[in-house]
Amino acid sequence: KLVLLLLALQISPAFSADKQVVFLHLNDLHAHLVPHKDLVRAVSDNGQPVANTETRGGLARLATLIKQAREEAPGQTVLMNVGDTYHGGVEALYTRGNAVIAPVDALGIDIGVPGNWDFAYGPIVTRLRYAMGSSWLSQLVNTVVYGEAVQRPAYPLLGGNVRKSLRILLEDEPLLPTTHTLQVGDIKVGLIGITSDIVPRMSPTLALGFTFLQGHAAYNDLINRAAQALRSQGAQLVVVMSELGIHRDHQLANSIDPDVYELLSAHTSHPASDPPTSTSGALLVESGDDAYLGRMTVSFRDAMPVQFHWELLQVTDDIPEDPAMASLVNAARAPFLAEVVHFDYPMPNTDFPLDARIDTVITESPLTLNRRGVLTNSFNQYLAGEMRSYYQTDVALAPGFRFDAVVAPGDAITLETLYRYLPVPATLAKGNITAANLKALFEKELTRVFSRDAFQHSGGWFLGVSGLDVEVDLARPDGERVISMRRAPNGREIAADDVLTVASCVRPLDKPGVLCSGEGFTDVEVLLDPDGKEWTPLRFLQERLTGHPAQPPTGRVSDVSNAPIWP
User: Fold this and answer.
1) Which of 319, 316, 280, 273 is nearest to 295 (CA)?
2) In this structure, which of 205, 354, 412, 463 has its CB flanked by the most CB atoms within 10 Å?
3) Rounded to the nearest 10 degrees, how much is the dihedral formed by the CA atoms of 170, 172, 177, 179?
4) Would you call 312 helix, strand, or coil by DSSP?
5) Is residue 59 within 8 Å of 325, Cβ to Cβ?
């Protein structure tokens, strides 16, 4: 199969196939409804890679691209939506994802897989939105408690690696199916769906009543068994839709049986322009986010796939908006742009209201802000620096989320921008930690992001760090990457028994001694605003951006080996 695929990828343009299946791949929408700035890879005049800031995305333009692709291959397309969809934007956050349902459904998606952030509204919402056979009684109870029914996507979803396991109900059954078949013209396509397994790491509460598959061997077995079953049902082409991330999917592609031709990945938000091949022969692709639409054209001869062509269609601002989709998007956003705006956070025991229009301008950005750097990035540095400066701690740590907004100097920072960075109701807090325990925390986080064994990965980016200069060697094995930690800006080496004060955050229902999902802290206390109220990082930044000059970064995390991050 590998030889066949390699030949197919290089086949002569004169080759004529008798049938085609066109997979349109959308991943990690993160509730983006409207166009936004994004970083786009390019090559400078001297041949060096650069990142240009361009306006990309928006469902109305994406809808136009999808319609065009369908018109070019009538009856031959499969639209797939893989990864985080109903969380990440302010409209989604205050409606538990409901505001995004109608616009996303209008894309005409054929099949999907939820992502880890789609579990973020809690286990009750997860069951009501995704579970097979969700009961009218549970929906009624939810409506009485929360005041609004949880809307379900109109398209089928897969996720064969998570089971319902609520002990009091003696459950042991799938949350979602593992496989699905689609008849595309004369071709029967078999689909395997895998969602993210890092939900327990995000918060044990979000995973309450669910059991997630873990480990390379378990996933290898899942894919092989599912592929075999689909083949026995007559599938001529088997593909995997995975929200495990492109690093794990690449590791799996090197070990699975040669029955799978493609892995369509998500979670890593990596626009893969050149799909890497693998030991099994499976091609690995990912579209990045809503700034791109992936298109994989599979050509068949005698009912056998013989040619694969992958391209990233760029959702640029010269693409006309689809009027019907624009109308749905405007309707979803209208309550958040009304003259009077008030939303309570829709989850219990959390004080995180929205009391202003989301287009409220807070300030012009004093610097470039984004979260695109995996080891270190401008937004995490900025947030950590502001926390450390305000609370006068030795160190500050900002959580290493993957989602962001891209802001250039002079751009308006709106309330909506801040929710793109911090759509979570954490609370600022501080605690004490020994340097030895902090080093152990850093090592654990570095393993979760950079381990050579991708199945040790759990999360997104590394932490934002202020107050320390940390040298690491990403080429070293797990647990051995931190070379030195020095106080910034004076450069003094930190002794293992030094005790440091750390500003960070706590989340609802965190265990004692935890800050920013990291363990080993003592004397943890919630930090208050000038009025004596608890502060979320979002509200803190809203205040700091108004009338306070940005603090220069104090501290950095640097890799001495310049180890390649991908593959």
Assistant:
1) 273
2) 463
3) -170
4) strand
5) yes
By the 10 Å C-beta count (0-12 exposed, 13-18 middle, 19+ buried), 253 is classed as buried
3-class secondary structure, 468: strand
As a whole number of angstroms, the distance between CA 197 and CA 194 comes to 9
Return the ∠ at Cα 73 (arms to 68 and 77), rounded to 5°. 90
Reduced to 3 states (helix: H, G, I; strand: E, B; else coil), residue 352 is coil
Residue where the block lists tokens 């993210």: 196
Looking at this protein, which amino acid is placed at residue 304? Answer: M
Q: In sequence order, which residues have a C-beta less than 8 Å from that of residue 140 and are 6 or more positions away?
A: none
**Which of 12-16, 276-280, 466-470: highest mean pLDDT?**
466-470
- Inter-residue contact 359 to 414 (CB < 8 Å): yes
Residue (of 548, 544, 204) closest to 398 by Cα position: 544
Buried b (16+ CB within 10 A) or exposed e, 512-537: eebbbbbebbeebeebeeeeeeebbb
Predicted TM-score (pTM) of the model is 0.93
Neighbouring residues of 386: CB distance < 8 A, sequence distance ≥ 6: 540, 541, 544, 548, 550, 551
Q: What is the pLDDT of residues 58-111, one digit of tens each?
A: 999 999 999 999 999 999 999 999 999 999 999 999 999 999 999 999 999 999
Per DSSP bridges, beta strands 499-506 and 395-398 are: parallel
Per-residue model confidence as pLDDT tens digits over 298-308: 999 988 999 99
